[in-house]
Amino acid sequence: QVQLVESGGGLVQAGGSLRLSCAASGRTFSLYSAGWFRQAPGKEREFVAAISWTGSITYYADSVKGRFTIARDNAKTTVFLQMNGLKPEDTAVYYCATTQRAYDALPRNGNGLDYWGKGTLVTVSS
């Protein structure tokens, strides 16, 4: 059974940094693309960043481009999200997700993704 466990959230002041981690288990992690989504109170879930199964391709939402960096360590079966220059509007629960099928790209709309973590809360104070 695939499990994704996020960690690293917390309270930070605007301009600060956090590093989120998503530990995966239950299958050969290195074959699957992964990504991060977030959901702020009263808002819909939105795409944040994704990384291909090889780690060679990354893509980001425009709102975080240049501030956030996604990376993966296949040996540790973990995906990371380094968040710098945090803004109050980055406040949300951040979720990790992986594709269902090996080698697939992770869709920005999150459709068809069956594997999600339970989320980690990031709060950015002004």
What would you note in describing this structure?
This protein is mainly β and 126 residues long. 0% of the residues lie in helices and 47% in strands. It has no helices and 11 strands. It has strands at 3-7, 10-13, 18-25, 34-39, 46-51, 58-60, 68-73, 78-83, 92-98, 115-116, 120-125. Strands 2, 4, 5, 6, 9, 10 and 11 form a 7-stranded mixed β-sheet that branches. Strands 1-3-8-7 form a 4-stranded antiparallel β-sheet, with no helix packed on it. The radius of gyration is 13 Å and the shape is globular.
Question: SSE layout and pairings?
Answer:
Blueprint: E1 3-7, E2 10-13, E3 18-25, E4 34-39, E5 46-51, E6 58-60, E7 68-73, E8 78-83, E9 92-98, E10 115-116, E11 120-125
Parallel strand pairs: 2-11
Antiparallel strand pairs: 1-3, 3-8, 4-5, 4-9, 5-6, 7-8, 9-10, 9-11
